[in-house]
Amino acid sequence: MRFAFTEDQILFKDTVADLLAKECPPEAVRWAWADETGRRPELWSALAEMGVIGLTTPEDHGGLGMDELDLLPLLTEAGRVAFPGPLLETTAVVAPRRPANPPPARPQRGRPRNPAGGGGGPRQRG
Questions:
Q1: Which residues are CB-contacts of 51 (< 8 A; sequence separation ≥ 6)?
Q2: Nearest partner of 65 among 73, 49, 54, judged by Cα
Q3: How far apart are CA 34 and CA 26, in angstroms?
Q4: How many CA atoms lie within 13 A of 8 on its CB side?
Q5: At what angle do helices 41-50 and 7-23 cross, to 10 degrees?
Q6: Of 32, 60, 97, 99, which sees the most CB atoms within 10 A?
Q7: Could you give the CA distance from residue 99 to residue 123 in angstroms, rounded to a whole number?
Q8: Nearest-CA neighbor of 16 among 100, 57, 98, 72?
């Protein structure tokens, strides 16, 4: 049994580390704390193009279908630069738990609206 990262995992980690070192210096992290959204869409897009965002998304949903062991070195690099984005939440929590066959949209519940313009609000007692 081998307890080490593969060459591919190390190469992917190094590629992500290079990107984050260039695009996420301490000034960018400070800016993110002061910004209303705290996000840099161009950096998120670059990570998505590299496959990082969809790393743990199942292949049948357009992701790479990898697991947490493949993700760990990338999250380590993101932590090293204090990456200001929802990388952990997206890749480790949301993406791998997408259902293979999502349920159909639920019908809206509650009182139907009056097509003539009346609201669907509470009834007046009187």
A1: 64
A2: 54
A3: 13
A4: 4
A5: 160
A6: 32
A7: 39
A8: 72
10, 69 contact by CB (below 8 A):
no
> What distance in Å separates the CA atoms of residue 60 and residue 119, rounded to the nearest whole number?
42
Classify each residue of 58-94 as buried b or exposed e, where b means 16 or more C-beta atoms within 10 Å of its C-beta: beeeebbebeeebbebbbebbeebebbbebeebbbee
CA distance 58 to 67: 9
How open is the CA angle 31-34-39, to the nearest 5 degrees? 65
pLDDT digits (tens, 9 = 90+) for 83-125: 998 899 888 888 777 665 666 666 666 665 555 555 555 555 5
Tokens 């947490």 belong to residue: 68
pLDDT digits (tens, 9 = 90+) for 20-63: 999 999 998 888 888 888 788 899 999 999 999 999 988 888 88
